[in-house]
Structure formats: C-alpha cells, structure tokens
Amino acid sequence: MRFEFSPEDEAFRREVRAFFREHLPRDMARRFYIGGHPPNRDDVRGFQKLMHARGWGAPHWPVEWGGTGWSPLRKHLFMEELYNADGLDGSWQSLYMCGPVLIAFGSEAQKRRFLPPMISGDEFWAQGFSEPNAGSDLAHLRTHAVLQGDEWVVNGQKIWTSDAMMAEWGFFLVRTDPAAKPQRGISFLLIRMDSPGLTIRPIVSIEGGHGLNEVFLENVRVPRENIVGEPGMGWTYAKYLLEKERTASAFLYFNKRELEKAREIARDRTVRGTRLIDTPEFARKLARVEVDVLGLEYSVLRILLQEKSRHNLDAVVSALKLRGSALQQRVTELQLEAMGLHALRQWGHDEGEHIAAAEAPRWPACVPGRTAQALIARASTIYGGSQEIQKNIIAKLAFGL
C-alpha cells in the first residue's frame, strides 16, 4: 500500500514542526528526550499552557470546549511532530481520560467548572481505578461511597494511581450500591486530592520513578454534585474512557521515535571497526522491529481513514494496544543492545535535572534515560488493560469465542 498526504496536510505538518522548533524550550525538550526520567511538574504545566495559548491544548476535544476541529489524520500528523520535537504528550489523565468522559456524560455545570482549567494546565488529574484486589478486573473494587445528606462519604484504597502527587483532582470509581450486580453498583466520582482523609503514598517503580502512588481514603467527604452522570453507571463510563485510552495506546508515536533513537545509537557505535548498524546480525534485528512498527502505523492509519473492517472496532483497538505495548519493550530492548556496556549506567530518578545539564556532556547524548525507559516499558503490557485482558476482548468481540 502506498500512502501519501495531501499538499494541505503536508503544509499543516510543516506549520506544526515550525512551531515546536521556535517555541519549545530546549531544556524542556532535553528532559522530554530523556524520557525515562519524566519532566517535572513545572514542565508539564508550562507545556500545557504553551499548547493552550496556541489553541492546541486538546486537539481531540470538540471545538466548543477548546478543541481544534482537526480531522483524525491531522491529529495524527500533530502527534508525530509532537514526538519528533521531543514535546510532552502530557496531562494524559486530564485530556485523554477524564475530559472526554465529562464531555460525553458530565453535567453542564461540571463541564464549565472542570474543562477550562484542564485544558489551560491550571489543574491536573489523577485516575483512581485500580485497587489491591481489583486491577484489570474492576468489578471487584471495594472502595465505597455512602450518601449522607448532600455529601458522599468515601472509604477504601486505590493503587497504581499515576501522578497523584501532582494532581489537584482525581476521578475515582467507587461502589455506591453494594446490593446491585458488580458492574451496576459502581459510580464515577470527582474528588479533590487535598481532601481531608485522603492520603497519598508514593510507589517507587523499577526505574526509580515516583509517578505511581497508593491512595487511601478514610471518611473523605465529597459534594453530592461531584458524581458524573447517573449513579451506578461508572462501569459504562470507565469502558468508554478505556476505549479512548486504548485508541491512543497503540504507542505508535513513542515507538517510531524510540526506533529512530535505536538507529542513531547503532550508527554511532562501532564494533571492531564497523558501525553497529552495518553489522548483519544487528541490521536483521533492527529490520524486524522496523517492519512491525510500520505494520502498526498502517493499522492505525486504516482506523484514522475509517477503512471498513470485518471485525468489531473495540477488538481492533485492543489489538493495537496489544501490539503497540509489546513493541515498546522490543524497541527499548533494541536500544539497550545497541548501547552495549553503556546500558549498565542507570541514572537515579532524582538525577534527571543533572542529566539535562551538567553530566550529559560526559556521555553520548543517546545514553541517559534509555535504561530507565526500557525498565519502565516492562509495565506497558500490564497497565491500561493487561495483555490477557486485551486477548479476551479480541477473542470475544472479533471471533465470538
């Protein structure tokens, strides 16, 4: 299949590329390039404000709520240029998860209250879904909320809550009707992260990062109007949210960018007088991954161009998640192999600022952050719905098993 973009779309791509080249601060881009040592809170907030000022704060939202009105293909081009420029695909919980649910199911008052500070970068959100005994199987969640007068009183525990330490708000799944069927008794509740009774404890992940957290809720009181949509419909809203997430979770842009870094490393490294990229063994490995990333790209483009498929769309996006997350691991492992002994140098998470400045000149530019990126990529086949969950969805919806 040969695919070409129209002259208008190519002009759009050049406009986006020029904007990032001119306006993205280089120190911020350097921290984004390192990747495995995520940007700090000021970076996330500053980048979102930069995008919002340009009118690109939430490209996929409806125009009436600050979106761009771009076609799916232009959103794709934008994301490619964003990653190529080492820009931040940040505010994930806000812009890709909670925002779309509020737009689809929230009240007008909730939309007016929460969407503007979300898109401007003034307020960030955390996702409170997983629990110690309810990770991929949300039907077993136990955190519950009881209505007392005009307030919900929430008790329970959440885990793997990304960015809870920097978020002003969280969207939580809580059980509000213990007598109903497991999926029918869950509601979608908006909770301030500084509420009395809410405690956040960091979880140190394998690469030394502190992005994940435990959240404990003890008699947390939440205004009655903070429930989204109808009580008991949280399961439906969560499915809607996760389907949105899975569409973006092909990790296409990440995989393309990191594959290019693997090429850069292999061009720079010499083995017994030969560039690594020119050695047959490594060239074969690189080609295998490259072909699979190209296949993933064409699969994403087919969806963006609304090509007809004989399979259920939910099954198709689950296949993208399945494939894209596995490719994250292969691409980052390829980088480590290309780096050789340099891959043994693992920077601590709190050294991120030094990597971006003082220490970086001592090492090849491609080295800092790659080992951390490969380590945290081990989680990519678990979060957002594990490989087993995705395969079950595909088996049921695509093949009727």
Word description of this protein:
It contains 13 helices and 10 strands. The chain is α+β, with helices and mostly antiparallel strands and 401 residues long. The longest helix is centred in the last third of the chain and has 27 residues, at 313-339.
Provide key terms for this protein.
alpha+beta; single chain; four-stranded mixed beta sheet; 401 residues; four-stranded antiparallel beta sheet
Which oligomeric state applies?
single chain
- How much is the average pLDDT? 87
Can you count the helices?
A: 13
Report the strand count: 10
Shape: globular
Q: What is the helical fraction, as a range of percent?
A: 40-55%
Helix and strand layout, with pairings?
Layout: H1 7-23, H2 26-34, H3 41-54, H4 72-84, H5 92-105, H6 108-120, E1 125-128, E2 144-148, E3 151-158, E4 169-175, E5 186-192, E6 198-203, E7 212-223, E8 227-228, H7 234-248, H8 252-268, E9 270-271, E10 274-275, H9 280-304, H10 313-339, H11 352-355, H12 370-376, H13 387-399
Parallel strand pairs: 1-4
Antiparallel strand pairs: 2-3, 3-7, 4-5, 5-8, 6-7, 9-10
Helix pairs in contact: 1-4, 5-6, 5-7, 7-10, 8-9, 8-10, 9-10, 10-12, 10-13
Quick structural summary:
This protein has 401 residues and is α+β, with helices and mostly antiparallel strands. It is built from 13 helices and 10 strands. It is globular and about 75 Å long.
